[in-house]
Amino acid sequence: MNVLEVSGVHKQFGGLVALDDVNFQVRKGSVTAVIGPNGAGKTTFFNLITGVYQPDRGDIRLEGKPLVGLRPDQVAMLGIARTFQNIRLFADLPVLDNVLVAMHGRLSARIPGILLGRRQIRQEERRAIGEAYWLLEYMGLAPYANEIAKNLPYGTQRRLEIARALATHPKLLLLDEPAAGMSPRETRELTEMIHRLREDFGLTVVLIEHDMKLVMNISEHILVLDYGRAIAEGPPEEIRNNPRVIEAYLGRGAVSGA
């Protein structure tokens, strides 16, 4: 069963074609990578899936439900969460509050109930705080609960961004260059964490990544973009030896032997 289906998606910015009729399916429970040189359209692809941009044409569906035309918050409520290439935390808020903010869309509290201090609102708040602490514990972030997010080490901020995404109860988790800036040890820990997330939360994971060792070790399926076009798709062993992929990354001479 496919959790995500992208059909004929095209996006153009002025004279620049960012994505050119891309088709893509993601199997439920899989770990899939989207790779390609800089400027290939990878982050634009994520932005279209999550409602940041709207495609000029084409269709995007999550478990059969259309996503085109929805706002990012509506897409998130349907079950898609993401992280960003450049970390986008609420930098001046404590770690705990960063996770709690992500739960807002799932809570029933409204301003009148909050102002009146209704019992069910207080109970819901206690449950949310308990869940947030549990997520921080799961991600190894509990000791930092009251720390200001911007004061955390880089790799720890990356984990907080993932904890915040998990707080939305996603079905599909999109990770945009999660290993960027990480040490080899942190990258190994990230690989193990992605495997755990899939098993423990029943997630489907799609990641954009330039670390080819990570991609080949963790992915079951890979989509390769180049200048907005899908030039290859398949399991890691096929992608590794695909001449078009080698050419896109290393140049035509790498394929011809020139």
From TrEMBL:
Pfam families: ABC_tran (PF00005), BCA_ABC_TP_C (PF12399). Keywords: ATP-binding, Nucleotide-binding, Transport. Gene3D superfamilies: P-loop containing nucleotide triphosphate hydrolases. GO terms for molecular function: ATP binding; ATP hydrolysis activity; L-isoleucine transmembrane transporter activity; L-phenylalanine transmembrane transporter activity; L-valine transmembrane transporter activity. Residues 4-252 form the ABC transporter domain. InterPro entries: AAA+_ATPase, ABC_AA/LPS_Transport, ABC_transporter-like_ATP-bd, BCA_ABC_TP_C, P-loop_NTPase. The keyword Lipid biosynthesis does not apply. The keyword Transcription does not apply. GO terms for biological process: D-alanine transmembrane transport; L-alanine transport; L-isoleucine import across plasma membrane; L-valine import across plasma membrane. It comes from the Bacteria. PROSITE patterns: ABC_TRANSPORTER_2. One of its GO terms (cellular component) is plasma membrane. PANTHER family: AMINO ACID ABC TRANSPORTER ATP-BINDING PROTEIN, CONSERVED COMPONENT OF ABC TRANSPORTER FOR NATURAL AMINO ACIDS-RELATED. This is Branched-chain amino acid transport system ATP-binding protein. The lineage of its organism: Bacteria, Bacillati, Bacillota, Bacilli, Bacillales.
